[in-house]
Specification:
Blueprint: H1 8-20, H2 28-36, H3 40-58, H4 70-76, H5 82-85, H6 103-116, H7 121-127, H8 134-149, H9 188-202
Helix pairs in contact: 1-2, 2-3, 6-7, 7-8
The structure holds a DNA duplex.
Length: 215
DNA sequence: CATGCGAAGATCTTACATTG
DNA sequence: CAATGTAAGATCTTCGCATG
């Protein structure tokens, strides 16, 4: 299988390269390989392994290992295990468990917010945070704004909602790659890539501080 | 240090409102 | 009337802290 070792950072670069060179790009593997200083064969093999893994996970055949925490999952390009493994073990009538929002997703959410404005959850979901449904985005926003409103109070615990700024370079949407090819449209990755570069060019960290939202 | 408990936080569901 | 957004609340997880 994987004849070469892939480090976490290489995985990260791999994701970014996949976004950069979406499916259909000429000499895709060669160009990705070039970025990673690996051979095209290695890159292609790595991709196929990932696709296979995700397919297995998606179909409920395997449990995601414990070490697969959120950040690792995000770095690897998909969401935390929860959604996949829940329900397959026990009955189907159990209440569906929530998949924790990753930092990346939240940052993408902030970008979407900036781009489409408060209330257009559908556009944000379709074009930016493609791993979440409009309802999920709306729900997340709901609690996010509640959190913002109560920000003056002393916080007992830190929260993902405390992130009000986004460094575009850190919010690469790896988790939105369409690894399985089963869901999502092929335009998603390029769209997100465009979004990220757009914001990366226009904004510095801190620019998201003041959205001027009204509740 | 390990454990138990309460509070806070995160996510989902559902009902209702709004809009085209 | 269907699609979408908002509000409220239920449920589950995680954190912080006291206690032994």
């Amino acid at each position: 299988m994987a004849s070469s070792q892939w480090t976490r950072s290489e995985d990260k670069m791999f994701e970014q390269a996949l976004v950069l060179f979406p499916e259909g790009s000429p000499n895709r593997w060669e160009r990705i390989a070039d970025q990673l200083h690996k051979s095209a064969g290695e890159v292609r093999e790595h991709y196929e392994v990932l696709v296979h893994d995700v397919f297995e996970i998606d179909s409920g055949r395997v449990d995601v290992p414990d070490y697969m925490d959120d950040s690792a999952a995000a770095a690897a390009g998909w969401d935390s295990a929860g959604q996949i493994s829940f329900g397959s073990k026990h009955g189907e009538s159990e209440r569906k468990r929530g998949t924790p929002w990753t930092e990346n997703e939240h940052k993408l959410f902030l970008i979407g917010l900036k781009r489409y404005g408060k209330g257009d959850w559908r556009s944000i979901s379709r074009n930016v945070v493609v791993t979440r449904t409009p309802t999920q985005v709306a729900s997340h926003a709901q609690k996010y704004f509640l959190r913002q409103n109560s920000v003056k109070k002393e916080r007992k615990r830190s929260s993902i909602h405390d992130i009000t700024t986004v460094d575009a370079t850190l919010a690469m949407p790896g988790s939105n790659m369409d690894w399985t090819g089963q869901h999502g449209s092929p335009v998603q990755a390029p769209q997100q890539q465009q979004i990220m570069s757009e914001f990366g060019q226009q904004l510095n960290p801190g620019h998201f501080e003041d959205f001027g939202f009204r509740m």
